[in-house]
Design a protein that fits this description.
Strand order of the largest sheet: 10-11-12-9-13-14-15-16
Shape: globular
Order of helices and strands: EHEHEEEHEHEHEHEHEEEEEEEHHH
CATH topology of the largest domain: Dihydrodipicolinate Reductase, domain 2
Structural class: alpha/beta
Largest sheet: 8 strands, mixed
Helix content: 25-40%
CATH superfamily of the largest domain: Dihydrodipicolinate Reductase, domain 2
Length: 358
Amino acid sequence: MTSFNWAIMGPGSIADMFADALKPSQKGVLYAVVSRDINKAQAFADKYSADEASHKAEADGASHKADGAFYKADGTPPKAYGSYQQMLADPKVDVVYIATPQSLHFEQAKMCLEAGKHVLMEKPLTINAAQTEALIALAQEKQLLLQEGLWSRFMPCFEQVKLWLDEGRIGELQYICSDIGFAFGDREGHRLHNPALGGGALLDLGVYSITLSQCLMQEHPSEINAMSHFGNLQVDENTLVNMRYPSGRFAQFTCTIAAQASNSMTLMGSKGRIVLPYMFWNGNKASLQQEGVQDEVIEFAHRVNGFEYQIEEAMNMIEKNQVCSDFMPHGDSLAVMQTMDEIRRQIGLKFTPDAERI
């Protein structure tokens, strides 16, 4: 069986979830961690290392794990790099998971692809559609994986919802409503308040409503109407969006960094509805509701934390020499960015030239 050496770029809280989900994988191992701050990279690597005493149980050269820790092929803990170039020059790195702020995604993914590394990248793929288009072209030219890590798209919960829709369990789907967000207040220095980091509610939170509506509708919006409130920030605090699709169906959503939202999604059909409750993007529960019929509720217990699905799918795609997965194909990633570009145009959301450049 093929084994993959993973490197993590951006060792923060999201990377923690990724690393935890990678632990039980039989195909992947955390090989390296990179940050411009070598101390952060080393601390993250140390966190996922074991005591020196456990290294004596070394296997026959294959990557292995013990006591919940990672080991490379030579039995040592993950490497820590303080330079992107040094990590990318390491021929043992197969695939890079990028968990940095979205304003850095384009530049970092580009350097990884140019170095011959496969890429799994946190959502949104980039800041704008032009950047996404450029990365897709590069990945296809290099025949390397470029996968948007929109974790919800890989989860069993949403496959079940699509099955209910295909079976006509709620009749004809009419529209989807969702809202997503939290009151971040005036947390000084928070990345969501910083336009240089691609902050605001839309790109970080609204992307879930857009991409899941796209996935469940199986089409892209043909008409978009958006409005927003910026407050004292240079980013959108509250954004409301209505989307019409070519089929005549609708999706509407609100995303916020200023209010405690219900964080739920409801699909309305001619014969019933499907409710995805609190933190719908986590894919933990789906409820099929029809008049006069007892609700059908399915709960989904992730094997780890929900990141495992995209990790395994990424490695499967690399084995099959595919540049992306059908769960989140390049065409969908690009269409989502084009939708967000139009919303940004309507609400006047601008980022710094450095973040927008190609």
